[in-house]
Amino acid sequence: MEILDYHKLKIFKTVADTGSFSKAAQLLFLSQPTVTLQIKKIENYLGVTLFRRDKKNVVLTEEGKILYEYATKIIEDYLLMEEKLSYMKENVQKNLVIGASTTVGEFLLPEVITSFLKNRESINVHIYIGNSKEIEEGILSKNFYVGLVEDEIISNKFDKIEFFKDEIILIGANRKNLPDVIEKDQLLEFKLIFREIGSGTRNIVEKYLKKAGIDIKPHMEIGSSKAISKMVSNSDCFAFVSKLVVKDDIKYGKLKEIKVNNLSITRSFTCITQKNVRLPKLEREFLNYLLDNTTFKNVM
Question: pLDDT tens, 132-147?
């Protein structure tokens, strides 16, 4: 006999928050058919239809909205219960789940996590890496409580704290004829590689270029900053990337930074948490460590 358990409710809430079965499956590390099957089981159990499709995504029916309201409360209460019980045990293995957008997750967070785990035993760490939009969705679905993103967060559903200042630079292959400095309008002559739509890096670069009156159509789009840097080092293409990504490649002469007159692109990495949601103890400890540890707190 089917039951309406925590697992099914979490899948349901994640689909509702993301408006997508495929995105929910990605966030939950499940296959899309599994997510679809579990939603169907809930609908059969309750005898109602929970979602309907519109042009772009899936939306809640009126019955779905009622279930969503109660499912949210049940999930929050369950997690609070789990936290309180786990900390009553000695030497219990604790789970720390963090969502991070690509640049933060691949090039800043590993060092932070390594330092945080020193003298802390029995902590199981899982890092979900996606673009900034996916991290927002993961927070709202409570798949993780702490998100570290490189994009500007406009939504009022989150508490936001800036914790690191990043610089976006223009790179090219380190060739003899490559200039050290160019003018802004010379960018129109370059074959530029951009990150994918939805990437925080792409959003901030397009924002600054638009402000400078430069409209550039990307020559190529690649969903990884590291892959972009490798492509640039072996071609006549150029790209705007985080300095964190290419600092070693520049140091060892594989890539060259090209200054653009009157164009300086900076951004703040931001920690986001959902408003009015109490963080579990371990997440609070990590967040306090991140903000208090001056090793990782760049001058704002």
Answer: 888 998 998 888 999 9
